[in-house]
């Protein structure tokens, strides 16, 4: 067994009261891998991400499909939430009432990277879907860590923005598992592709060994 | 053809059957209820009351401003303390024993709490403050916990697992739920004003005290002046209850309610070690003696009290339902124009702003002691609340352009659409009606409150405490029954009672 192994799933299974969401999942994840999860909606991508997060909650940044934002708080505060655990409660409360300049400049630097700096103090409720998604991405960038788990993090962005964001994320996080809808992006930014269908892994291969055309069937010709 | 089944049989819904069951039970209760008019000449008394309305007078009222201030200060501090404690309790509301403790604290009406604390602290401000804060904290805990449970948790779930709960709560939960907390707390502030005023009836220096004094002396013009002042206070709530002003109010309020009473620790100790200890235990009698004491208390006081409370509240509940079904159209867009609805709103606001205790007090003086004044007071107050809620709900109903009008619109279009919501509101109110019914006993109707008040008058606090506990248990049982029925007939749980 290699020293770089960070997670090993042997025949893992996730059941919901009415159905089986994942079954016969055998998966090893090593440090430094960039993994794309692809498959139709309902194939178990989100469940697999949730399962991985449950096994590796520490040092993991998460971008859930619904963004997980607090609508009435500003972009700044939502991004700051990535590092709540690094400060004592009294500090966080003061920062909630009046942001500390040092934290604003830290968050501002992140927002600059994803071109959202002008929205820093705007409530998330007033943002568009794409801006909200970038806020959630900024939070994960601010949080940092060794592993990123992201569920369709660029679904509301155009291709140009998507590529920019994925480049930033791959630079920031040594290891990542991203559910992606766009197979071209998956091949371009990840070195390993895992295909899911009906809760089972049907494909697990290095990116350079497969082409976009071969992945089409996983989406049923979409 | 084989596909055609035998003609299906018309069947009433479960809601229909439950409704008639309640109506039937209320009719049966009418046979055993005492609903006569006892006073010598009720109409003359009513005439004097109404003529007082024509010339409300502030003269002869000493310190009326002070009474208003005291009412405000007690309400403000009681609700504030209750909401802060309630918030903390809401965070641990998933602990079973916290839920049970809150149910018990909530089941004891603030007037009973006041009667208890009067024995412990006398007229010290702590009496009024705790009498409000304790039941309010328990109610806040329940509602806040429901708000937290229904809120969106997605931001909370992505937080790093090392995040402390204070930071997590203030960042990921509170901001998006703040508006719900604020709306509910402001609504409870209105309730707090009513409760605070009513506490005057047991001796605290709030509006109720001036009101009962004016009534006893037959000074009806003063009664009206006080009532109008109270309505104005509630109607203007949104103008003076500003978030930015609340800290100022909270700083001033303690000085308003402070007086020269001191807490006697001997009194406190005596209350816990002697007053509330069942007398057979105090006299060193055996357990048999204790059992006989309890059995006697239960058979001669608690049982008649429970029966009367149930009989009265059952009639009041059903009559409340019927009246609210009649009242809701007066504020509904489906039936009246702007002017008509405006008048309807004024009527409902006045009725629901008048605490049922004050209504019952007035009607008792007019009609003499029977169940009738209590029933009418409960029905008017609660029906105006439910009528308001159902009316507002009916405004959201979208009717087709060619919908029928008048009685056909009422029976075919509106009632079927609002009936489920109406029943949900009514069953939520059931527990409140029971609690109020018990408390109206203090005014002389033989419900549980009557026996509790008598025991306190006779300085038998041991009995009073047992009776209060029995009242609380009755409340909890009714609350459970109401929840069971709501679940059985699938009434929506998450409704905005505001």
TrEMBL record, chain B:
<keyword id="KW-0472">Membrane</keyword>
<protein>
    <submittedName>
        <fullName>ABC transporter permease</fullName>
    </submittedName>
</protein>
<dbReference type="GO" id="GO:0005886">
    <property type="term" value="C:plasma membrane"/>
</dbReference>
<keyword id="KW-1133">Transmembrane helix</keyword>
<keyword id="KW-1003">Cell membrane</keyword>
<feature type="transmembrane region" description="Helical">
    <location>
        <begin position="64"/>
        <end position="91"/>
    </location>
</feature>
<feature type="transmembrane region" description="Helical">
    <location>
        <begin position="432"/>
        <end position="452"/>
    </location>
</feature>
<feature type="transmembrane region" description="Helical">
    <location>
        <begin position="223"/>
        <end position="241"/>
    </location>
</feature>
<feature type="transmembrane region" description="Helical">
    <location>
        <begin position="306"/>
        <end position="331"/>
    </location>
</feature>
<keyword id="KW-0813">Transport</keyword>
<feature type="transmembrane region" description="Helical">
    <location>
        <begin position="464"/>
        <end position="482"/>
    </location>
</feature>
<keyword id="KW-0812">Transmembrane</keyword>
<feature type="transmembrane region" description="Helical">
    <location>
        <begin position="111"/>
        <end position="134"/>
    </location>
</feature>
<dbReference type="InterPro" id="IPR035906">
    <property type="entry name" value="MetI-like_sf"/>
</dbReference>
């Amino acid at each position: 067994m290699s020293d770089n192994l960070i997670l090993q799933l042997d025949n893992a299974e996730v059941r919901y009261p009415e159905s089986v969401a994942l079954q016969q999942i055998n998966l090893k994840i090593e440090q430094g891998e960039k993994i794309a999860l692809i498959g139709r909606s309902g194939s178990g991508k989100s469940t697999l991400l949730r399962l991985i997060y449950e096994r590796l909650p520490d040092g993991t940044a998460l971008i859930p499909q619904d963004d997980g934002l607090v609508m009435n708080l500003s972009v700044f505060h939502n991004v700051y939430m990535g590092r709540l655990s690094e400060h004592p409660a009294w500090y966080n409360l003061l920062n909630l009432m009046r942001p500390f300049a040092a934290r604003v400049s830290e968050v501002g630097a992140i927002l600059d990277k994803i071109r959202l700096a002008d929205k820093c103090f705007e409530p998330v409720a007033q943002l568009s879907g794409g801006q909200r998604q970038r806020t959630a991405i900024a939070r994960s960038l601010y949080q940092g860590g060794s592993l990123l788990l992201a569920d369709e993090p660029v679904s509301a962005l155009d291709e140009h923005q998507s590529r920019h964001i994925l480049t930033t994320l791959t630079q920031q996080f040594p290891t990542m598992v991203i559910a992606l809808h766009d197979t071209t992006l998956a091949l371009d930014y990840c070195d390993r592709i895992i295909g899911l269908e009906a809760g089972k892994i049907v494909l697990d291969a290095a990116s350079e060994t497969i082409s976009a055309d071969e992945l089409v069937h996983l989406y049923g010709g979409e | 053809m084989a596909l055609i089944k035998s003609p299906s049989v018309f069947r009433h819904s479960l809601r229909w059957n439950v409704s008639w069951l309640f109506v039937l039970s209320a009719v049966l209760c009418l046979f055993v209820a005492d609903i006569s008019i006892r006073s010598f000449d009720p109409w003359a008394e009513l005439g004097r009351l109404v003529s007082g309305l024509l010339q409300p007078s502030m003269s002869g009222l000493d310190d009326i401003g002070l009474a208003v201030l005291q009412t405000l200060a007690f309400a403000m501090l009681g609700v504030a303390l209750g909401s802060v404690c309630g918030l903390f309790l809401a965070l641990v509301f998933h602990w079973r024993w916290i839920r049970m403790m809150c149910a018990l604290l909530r089941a004891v009406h603030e007037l009973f709490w006041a009667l208890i604390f009067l024995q412990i602290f006398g007229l010290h401000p702590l009496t009024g403050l705790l009498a409000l804060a304790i039941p309010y904290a328990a109610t806040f805990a329940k509602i806040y916990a429901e708000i937290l449970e229904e809120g969106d948790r997605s931001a909370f779930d992505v937080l790093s697992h090392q995040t402390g709960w204070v930071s997590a709560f203030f960042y990921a939960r509170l901001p998006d739920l703040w508006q719900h907390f604020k709306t509910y707390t402001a609504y409870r502030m209105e309730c707090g004003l009513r409760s605070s005023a009513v506490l005057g009836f047991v001796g605290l220096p709030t509006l109720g005290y001036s009101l009962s004094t004016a009534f006893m002396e037959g000074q009806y013009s003063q009664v009206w002046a006080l009532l109008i002042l109270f309505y104005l206070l509630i109607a203007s709530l949104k103008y003076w209850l500003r978030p930015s002003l609340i800290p100022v109010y909270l700083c001033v309020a303690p000085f308003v309610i402070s007086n020269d009473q001191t807490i006697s620790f001997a009194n406190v100790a005596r209350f816990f070690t002697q007053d509330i200890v069942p007398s057979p235990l105090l006299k060193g009698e055996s357990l048999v003696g204790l059992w006989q004491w309890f059995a006697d208390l239960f058979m001669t006081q608690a049982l008649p009290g429970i029966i009367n409370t149930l009989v009265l509240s059952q009639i009041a509940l059903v009559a409340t339902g019927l009246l609210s079904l009649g009242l809701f159209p007066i504020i509904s867009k489906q039936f009246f124009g702007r002017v008509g609805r405006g008048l309807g709103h004024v009527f409902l606001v006045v009725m629901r702003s008048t605490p049922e205790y004050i209504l019952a007090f007035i009607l008792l003086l007019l009609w003499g002691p029977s169940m009738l004044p209590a029933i009418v007071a409960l029905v008017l107050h609660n029906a105006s609340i439910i009528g308001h809620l159902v009316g507002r709900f009916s405004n959201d109903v979208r009717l087709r352009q060619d919908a029928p009008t008048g009685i056909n619109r009422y029976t075919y279009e509106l009632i079927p659409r609002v009936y489920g919501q109406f029943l949900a509101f009514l069953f939520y109110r059931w527990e409140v009606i029971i609690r109020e019914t018990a408390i109206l006993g203090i005014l002389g109707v033989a419900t549980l409150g009557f026996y509790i008040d008598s025991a306190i008058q006779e300085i038998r606090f041991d009995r009073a405490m047992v009776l209060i506990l029995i009242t609380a248990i009755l409340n909890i049982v009714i609350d459970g029954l109401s929840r069971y029925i709501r679940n059985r007939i699938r009434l929506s749980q998450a409704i905005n009672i505001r």
